[in-house]
Amino acid sequence: MITRLPPAAYSALSAAFKKGMKKYPAASAFSILDTCYDLSNYTSISIPTVSFTFDDAADNGIFGNTQQLAFEVVYDVAGGKLGFAAAGC
After folding, report:
1. β-strands 71-76, 81-86: how paired?
2. Is 20 inside any structural domain?
3. pLDDT confidence of 88, banded at 50, 70, 90?
4. Cα(33)–Cα(2) distance, rounded to whole angstroms?
5. What is the pTM of this model?
6. pLDDT (tens digit, 9 = 90+) per residue, 46-77?
């Protein structure tokens, strides 16, 4: 499962990411993955940092398990909190 965001949030994230990647050539979209780049001629790349902040007013989205592979996820059900930490796995 990949991360899915509400349209307004995705548009803002996509625009900011594209701005940070403007020195690299764009590639054709692959299905719903429309922020693609041709990095075949590069030996070193710089990818913008992306972070997520959740609040009570957030629209529903899906934070996919693909983005969670190298993270520990802590669920505080009683406290109504969710936490992430780099796990290095």
Report:
1. antiparallel
2. yes
3. low
4. 10
5. 0.67
6. 999 887 776 766 567 777 777 667 777 788 88
